[in-house]
Design a protein that fits this description.
The protein has six helices and 16 strands. The chain is α/β, with parallel strands linked by helices. The protein folds into two domains: 94 residues, Elongation Factor Tu (Ef-tu), domain 3; 110 residues, Rossmann fold, CATH 3.40.50. A seven-stranded antiparallel sheet has the order 4-3-7-1-2-6-5. Helix 5 packs across helix 6. The chain is globular and about 50 Å long. Bound molecules: flavin-adenine dinucleotide. The site of flavin-adenine dinucleotide (FAD) has 24 residues, from strand 4, strand 6 and helix 2.
Amino acid sequence: MLFCEDSELLERECLGPCLYRFSVRSNNICDNAKPGQFLQIQVDGGLGAFLRRPFSIFDIDRSNGIVDFIFQAKGQGTRLLSKKHVGEHINIIGPLGDGVFSWDGCGNVMIIGGGIGIFPLYLLAKRLPKKHNAFVRLGFRSKDNVVLEDEFREQCHALNIFTDDGTYGLRGSVCRNLDSDLGSDDIDAIFACGPLPMLRSVKEIAARREIPCQVSLEERMGCAIGACMGCAVKFSDTGKPPAYARVCKDGPVFNAADVEF
Ligand SMILES: Cc1cc2nc3c(=O)[nH]c(=O)nc-3n(C[C@H](O)[C@H](O)[C@H](O)COP(=O)(O)OP(=O)(O)OC[C@H]3O[C@@H](n4cnc5c(N)ncnc54)[C@H](O)[C@@H]3O)c2cc1C
């Protein structure tokens, strides 16, 4: 079920450089959202920021009807959004996306996030039944960019933080030693979201190990309801003509093996 509503901004927290956590009121979205789904947010910027901006659902507090999303203010629309005040209303469409994370039949899982790609993975870690030991890897550029460490630690069996420059946690890519860790931790499902080069590496390593892997994609998006095809991605091994899937409607979560990065 899809809702379009004016939701009150209840809390606005600055988490780090240009990074904001917004908490909005929406019982409807709370009751219906699944891990991996996203929201389309109107930023009220006139023609300059006419299109809504898509953001993953970060967290849901069902008992209080509160939905959280976190965003990086980098372009015109997100910078405008970051200036909203508590008490203002924000028009939200959601929950969007038919492709969601699915953990049926898996045991130990590996969750891998890079940069702003960590946000859709928190609700997944929170909703996973505790019998699935979740091993989480989060990658950031530098110590100043590291966020949500305590929140993720609370929801998982083991957490490793990586920074590109080694100023915090382990130095290097979030895929460092991933191949060997997948074997030693007895992982049988992988969930990932992050920049495309990272997802490409995760897909390759998962394929080598024959471990099912689901990825959440963040493509540029227009309508977000499957009509405009602006967010189409190419599917693998589909012959000619190639098949495409819409990130907004068919995704944003896909089996990594199906997607051609
Ligand atoms: C399913 C999904 C979930 C996302 N979740 C998050 C999240 O939780 N937190 C977060 O910070 N970002 C997230 N993003 C990326 C975020 O939507 C873009 O960074 C944002 O739309 C950029 O808007 P802007 O006004 O800053 O940039 P502008 O450059 O002004 O945007 C111009 C247009 O391009 C689109 N656009 C630009 N960059 C992207 C991008 N990387 N992905 C999709 N559309 C883009 C915008 O929607 C807009 O229509 C997500 C994207 C998708 C598709």
